[in-house]
Amino acid sequence: MQPERWRQISGIFKSALALEPEERGAFVAAQCGPDEALRRDVERLISSYSQADQDNFMDEPAVAAVAPLLNSDDDISKDRLASGQQVSHYRILRKLGAGGMGEVYLAEDTQLDRTVALKILPADVAADKRRMQRFKQEAKLASSLNQPNILTIFEFGEAGSLHFIASEYVDGATLRDQLRLKPIKLAEVIEIGTQVVAALDAAHEAKIVHRDIKPENIMLRRRDGVVKVLDFGLAKLSEPPASAGGHSDTEANTELLRTTPGTVMGTVSYMSPEQAQGLRVDERTDLWSTGIVIYEMVAGRLPFAGTTSSHLIVEILEKEPALFGETGIVVPPELERIVAKSLAKNPDERYQTAKDLLIDLRNLKRRIDLDAEIKRSVSTHLGTATTDGPAARDLDTAATQHSTPNGSADRGPTRSKLLPIAALLVVLIAALLALTSWSRIRRGAGSPAPAVIVPSARQLSYWMTVQKYRAGRPFAAPFRLAGEINFEPNYQVKLNITSPQAGYLYILNEGPRDAAGSSSFVVLFPSPTANDGLAYLGENQRVEIPPQSWFQFDAEEGTEKLWLVFSAEAVAELEQVKQFANPKDRGQVKDAELQMRVQDFLLAHAKPAPALSRDDELKQTTLSSPNAVLVYSLKLEHH
Fold this sequence. Notes:
single chain; alpha+beta; Transferase(Phosphotransferase), domain 1; seven-stranded antiparallel beta sheet; globular
């Protein structure tokens, strides 16, 4: 959508709002004339405006949202409460700030002797009993969230004409404040992102979508750096994704109306494409906004920019953000992948759950921590890389102290002998630390340390992402399973796989055997659309199969057998089947002799079966084999 087109739509929409509801239809028809597409776009915005007042407090009408901007400067600057004033059992200490949803004060809870943040809701909001009732219901649900990274809500109450929310007070600064002060280090970026997603994971489990993740709503506690995500009490209950013709989400339109050319875009910059278009949103819109926040922390700027809100919306809908590498910023490739997937414009190609994003961020953090520990070890034992550094001087001193029989210093030969020895020691120490650190990372609290995975052993983790369908449309949000169940015919599933080791992954779907006992095979991974057709995976790399769609079961009851092969080295037989992973053959291996060799390979390596363990917290299954090749038969039953 071009900016000029959006301005035309927005202008007609705003003018229509000034009229009585029964007059809007004729006005819009007259303004749009024969342009049916323009009329439909304007009518959809008007419909969302009307629906918002019925559906939810957050979907407040645009006029109500703009009203605070029409107040006089005196009204805006005037504090509603003074220091020492009593509100219920809270004594006001000082004002902390103000925003579109009211003023916030630091207060003392005189009953429980604790400091709280007291948010006083605007008078126009409190006067609307219907909206207040809906807001109370959402605030009550949000207060039930019990997660360390979510701001705790203590009470929703009223005193006289004042309606307030009492929450924990966080002594710290917002992420926005931190970004203004100095760049954030990569390790801190990953840590902050991980804690934000952990908060979203808990909220999404309770069917709460935040819808306004941005640096202003992320607080960093001063004493320990713990992240607190704010304003979950203003969130909207999650809804199933709607089609393009469904009711729209007015929050996007509200933000556009309150933004004028030349002003800071604010929340609009963090909106997902579906949110910017006014469509209904689900949990995946929070994951998009989190991707924007991570991008901004790394790059020091937003991935999308525009001089007006209309230009910004066009950027979000049509432009791809510049990769970090293209802007000269060096980051781990895995972080580049995580951000790119978070910012997929199609929600179906984005992370489907916060849990999936959380696992990828935690794995990346572990890898970065391990690399840092190895570098510290190298620095400790070898010193800096410069020739005039402490380590170089120490080596020079050692060489000087080693004298020839006649007493002269024999610096050159001795130094040349010491350097290879020192280098060998560093390599051995680094390898030992890597194995020790990995063992410690994988060890659960109070559980014995697992055996160290030697290069000849293989370990692989998998889980299923399931999307229910009803009447041919997605029903509820996708959910995660550690393993297989008896799937309903209207379920669609994805297989997710990762490993702490690098190696070669192959996935084949085995079809029914013919009269001669030979099986047919279809190549599912690698493929041209998955991992660029390569079988090789890096450490902690995660793949989805299929990458851009879902497994769909047919109406006939049965079992789909998937063979998972994870090898330390490339497998010749399976490398040959990749030639059939093309649109023409659709992965079907059509070489009968090759089919027999693949079948023989699978049967030869399937026993002994890999050890299997399931993690109920992460909802994933881990396979372990003492051999250099792991082969596992995964059965997907459906009825």
